[in-house]
Amino acid sequence: MGLLNGRRGLVVGIANEHSYAYHIAASLARDGAECLFTHLPGEKMEARCRRALGELGLSQAWLRPLDAGSDEDLDRVFGEIGSEFGRLDFLVHSIAFADRAWLKEGTFTATPREVFTQALDISAYTYMAMAHRAAALMTDGGSMVAMSYYGAEKAVPGYNVMGVAKAALEAATRYLALELGPKHIRVNTISGGPLRTMSAMAVGGFSQILGWVEARAPLRRNVSGQDVGDAAAFLLSDRSAGITGQVLYVDCGYSIVGL
Ligand SMILES: NC(=O)c1ccc[n+]([C@@H]2O[C@H](COP(=O)([O-])OP(=O)(O)OC[C@H]3O[C@@H](n4cnc5c(N)ncnc54)[C@H](O)[C@@H]3O)[C@@H](O)[C@H]2O)c1
Fold first, then answer.
1. Based on C-alpha coordinates, what's the Rg of the chain?
2. Which residue among 157, 191, 233, 234 is least enclosed by CB atoms within 10 Å?
């Protein structure tokens, strides 16, 4: 029996078959969950997302456009889920955005206000905005997971404003967990190792990061999408019933190395 049989949830963040959200959805589906999906608005985005879902054998899955920066979009998507399904058991937040021009070494100090605001809005605030709407549908309790990175905790060259946004996301995880715990809703975040995705390629020097981690991580390799997908399935299932407000490192141990 799958860890998530009979559970239904929303997965936000599949751009293509390289996305962390794609690997998370693959693990969730293997564990018996029913996943609903969103894609960034636009025909091209929808086609890419559908193609990825097809790879998972989920080409008929529930899929709606969502710009998480729009409250109207968020209200529409969660409103539709409420009226079509009534209840939600889990939420996966696997999105982030920052203008790539400011994700290069030597540009952090000059980050413009609007670049900072947008990065924090899309990459951190939207976890709260989704959690608020999802919690209203988690009438039997629930579990939520977002995606962070080590650059929240340490200064990673080139990660810049995204590191500040991830620090906010991790802090938001703890405050959401505190407030939603009494409703039997758990809120956690995975700090995933570097994975070659569309967003990752926007970070300056990303290929060097992959090589550096492979050489130094205790497991002497980079994470696979499935490493993170399976950890998300665990956090969204009852096997992690006592865990909330945590940042779980799924990084082949890289973050524990002191030198
Ligand atoms: N790839 C890595 O190395 C890595 C490491 C740790 C954490 N993460 C995090 O994993 C998450 C997923 O990123 P990924 O690496 O899979 O890249 P990705 O490019 O495949 O996914 C990013 C997703 O964010 C979505 N998005 C951006 N702006 C949006 C908006 N306004 N509304 C709705 N969706 C929006 C995109 O459509 C895309 O689906 C992000 O939070 C990222 O920071 C990635």
1. 17
2. 157
Mean pLDDT of 77-81: 98
pLDDT band at 202 (very low <50, low <70, confident <90, very high): confident
Bridge partner residues of 139 (DSSP): 141
Mutate to test the pocket of ligand 1, among 40, 45, 72, 95 (most ligand atoms within 8 A of CB): 95
68 C-alpha to ligand 1 centroid (Å): 12
**Which ligand 1 atom is at minimum distance from the Cα of 196?**
1
Q: Where are the domains of the chain?
A: 8-252
- Token pair, residue 142, equals 């629930």
**pLDDT over 70 at 1, yes or no:** no
Q: What would the DSSP string read from start to end of 133-147?
A: HHHTT-BTBEEEEEE
Q: Is the dihedral of CA 120, 124, 130, 133 positive or negative?
A: negative
- Mean pLDDT over the full length of the chain: 97
**Pocket lining for ligand 1, CB < 6 angstroms:** 13-15, 18-21, 40, 66-69, 94-97, 122, 147-149, 192, 194-195, 197-200
Atom 1 (ligand 1) nearest CA: 195
pLDDT reported for residue 180 = 98
190, two tokens: 């995975």
Region 180-192 average pLDDT: 98
- From ligand 1's centre to the CA of 6, what distance in Å? 27
The CATH architecture to which 8-252 belongs is 3-Layer(aba) Sandwich (3.40)
- pLDDT tens digits for 109-149? 999 999 999 999 999 999 999 999 999 999 999 999 999 99
Cβ–Cβ under 8 Å, residues 247 and 188: yes
The closest-lying atom of ligand 1 relative to the alpha carbon of residue 166 is 43
